[in-house]
Known about the structure:
CATH class of the largest domain: Alpha Beta
Number of domains: 2
CATH superfamily of the largest domain: Nitrogenase molybdenum iron protein domain
CATH topology of the largest domain: Rossmann fold
Largest sheet: 6 strands, mixed
Radius of gyration: 21 Å
Structural class: alpha/beta
Amino acid sequence: MTQDLLHFSPGPQRIVCLTEETTEWLYLLGQEHRIVGISGYTVRPRRARDEKPRVSAFLSAKTDKIMALQPDCVFGFSDLQADIAADLVKRGVQVTIFNQRSVSDIFSMLYQVAAMVGEAEQGARRIAQMQADLKAMQAAVAARLASGARRPKVFFEEWDEPHISCIRWVSELMTIAGGDDCFPELALEPMGKQRIIADGATIVQRAPDIVLCSWCGKKFRPEKVAAREGWADMPAVRDGQLFEIKSADILQPGPAALTDGVQQMHRIFMQWMDKTLPVRGAPA
């Protein structure tokens, strides 16, 4: 049979996802059949771990195992996976490394991936719904503020030893959800080592009303946080406002952060704001 030299596949058919967010997004788009390999850290969706071979960590990958899957595209994230990407490119694999650091960057990445697999229209609809939900969240916060509530000051701890404050998309989602990041200047730094807070006293000085912890899979110990030297009189510790948000829900720059992660923050912040509402009938 004569080969059709003009035939081409509409987008990649055999994709390896080196991070969780592209895996979750492809499943949401109904394109999971294109995925042939995933990150070992993938937990969303849960069934992906049962259905797809795990071929990478975050900073390392089983390159030979990836090559055996015969991928026609590999999706990765940031300069942290540059060495993996370079190795695969040298072996002739198409690699797309995204570098989304903000909420708008995440939306852009989601649209690009959707377009690459022929689902630009569906992707745009899903993005529009997420944006609408975030706008509704902002409106709910605005209504609370109009009623006399105030926004909580929030310290988001991405790692505990040393203390690392949150990355940009988390800080932005925090703002949308109703909180004020205690370290907004650090959120602009892309690398964790640039967001280290060497002295816990610096955190105490910012007097956070709420502390959110997401220790990248490490077990959250609220009693350990409360027992830190000098933290007893911090408003968040004094009032028992110490919460965990799972890293899979907020620290992967994809659908989870824009939905489950930000919704968890919003619920915590709204409950706190309700306590600051002025009592009706009380003297001004």
